[in-house]
Write a structure and sequence with these properties.
Layout (H helix, E strand, L loop, with lengths): L1 H26 L2 H42 L24
Length: 95
């Protein structure tokens, strides 16, 4: 939930940044544009970190749920085998 709120806040800040950049262009203010360029680098760094953390969290949850499934009631061993049907071929003919 916190990650979602941080991404929302970052999106809002990027919109605000966009306005400041175009204000700098309109007023032909070089120092302000340089400052906005530095802020953009910072915002993109934060965006990359948040995206990386989101992927890490999703993969961690998947690993934990798979481990839980494997420990409970035999896990994957209890699932029936999957039989492929490729134009009438049996699975043995693939090997």
């Amino acid at each position: 939930m916190a990650g979602l709120l941080l991404q929302l806040a970052l999106g809002y800040r990027l919109s605000y940044w966009n306005r400041n950049v175009f204000d700098g262009f309109g007023h032909r203010n070089g120092p302000a544009l340089r400052m906005q360029a530095l802020i953009f680098v910072l915002l993109m760094g934060i965006s990359i970190v948040l995206a990386t953390l989101a992927v890490w969290a999703r993969m961690t949850i998947q690993r934990q749920s798979r481990a839980t499934w494997e420990m409970s009631a035999g896990g994957w061993a209890q699932l029936p085998p999957v039989v492929a049907s490729h134009q009438g071929q049996t699975p043995e003919s693939f090997w």
